[in-house]
């Protein structure tokens, strides 16, 4: 028998950009409740700005999502090291190691 092994919500098929942040919050809440930990829930985070990206990631984590599929910030021109730093700082913020979501921006303005 074929089974579903995970679920991707807001995965980038156009729905993300047509929804407000509040609508995305609601979609996460409804889906977390419906899935009820039966399979891992991955939520797409396709924000163009760092601050909104981190805000939505933190919301998804606190709501009960198992993972986030985070789009590389495409308005930020940078090196591979800068992209790695974006993800490392994002992970630290989402995991609660820092309360400063703007740390990444400050570090990259050197």
Describe the structure.
The chain is mainly α and 110 residues long. 46% of the residues lie in helices and 11% in strands. The chain has four helices and three strands. Helix 1 packs parallel to helix 2 (50-63) and helix 2 packs parallel to helix 3 (80-95). It is globular, with a radius of gyration of 15 Å. Residues 102-110 have low confidence and may be disordered.
Structural class: mainly alpha
Radius of gyration: 15 Å
Order of helices and strands: EHEHEHH
Q: Could you give the count of β-strands?
A: 3
Structural shape:
globular
- Major beta sheet summary: 3 strands, parallel
Low-confidence stretches: 102-110
Strand order of the largest sheet: 1-2-3
Summed over residues and divided by their number, the pLDDT gives a mean of 84
Please indicate the percent range of residues in DSSP E strands (runs of 2 or more): 5-15%
| Helicity level | 40-55%
Count of individual helical segments: 4
Distance between the termini: 55 Å
Supply the key terms.
4 helices, 3-stranded parallel sheet, mainly alpha, 46% helix, single chain, 110 residues
Outline of this structure?
With 110 residues, the chain is mainly α.
Furnish the topology, listing elements before pairings.
Elements: E1 7-9, H1 21-35, E2 41-45, H2 50-63, E3 67-70, H3 80-95, H4 103-108
Parallel strand pairs: 1-2, 2-3
Helix pairs in contact: 1-2, 2-3
